[in-house]
Amino acid sequence: MKKKIAIFFDRDGVLIEAPLHSGKPKSTKELKDVKFCKNIIKLCKKYKEKYLLIMITNQPDYIRKKNTKKNIENINKYLKKKLKLDDIYVCYSDNDGCYRRKPNPGMIYDAQKKYKIDLKKSYLIGDRWRDIGAGNKAKCITIFIDRNYNEKNIFKAKYNVKEIKDILEIIK
User: Fold this and answer.
1) Per residue in 59-96, pLDDT tens?
2) CA Rg, the chain, in Å?
3) Whole-model pTM?
4) Which residues of 100-133 are buried (b: 16+ CB within 10 A; e: fewer)?
5) Is 116 helix (H, G, I), strand (E, B) or coil?
6) Catalytic residue check, 110
């Protein structure tokens, strides 16, 4: 495998629009509700040749019985096909002690082992503190998309952007 640098993407709020409840993003529940974030298709096309494109997502709604695994998997399969993602990692746990649940870096480490990724040269793009925490712990270059959610970001990203198109100026 010649590609050893990855771009890790969060799902809801980065690849697809996240429905908001009380100013906080929630997971998209069904395939019919999927709307790609502005410029994400263009961004994935641009970086596909040079980088591994990997989605990492917490989906605790399954364990909380607020969504089905089938719905989550249908959305993920669709995203993988449409955006030509190399892989997808999902954590269904809602236990913050879980090694794979962001802000823990387990999903990133799983991908690193599988693809022999150089994490220090890889990027993590997220819209919530959990994403940035996982990226920082794995020593990735973190990019925070500030969606003005009603929550405190307790981790500092290397880069902060307002829109996805701004990422094109960071990742060359």
Assistant:
1) 999 999 999 999 999 999 999 999 999 999 999 999 99
2) 15
3) 0.96
4) bbbbbbbbbbbbbeebebebeebbbbbbbbbbbb
5) coil
6) no
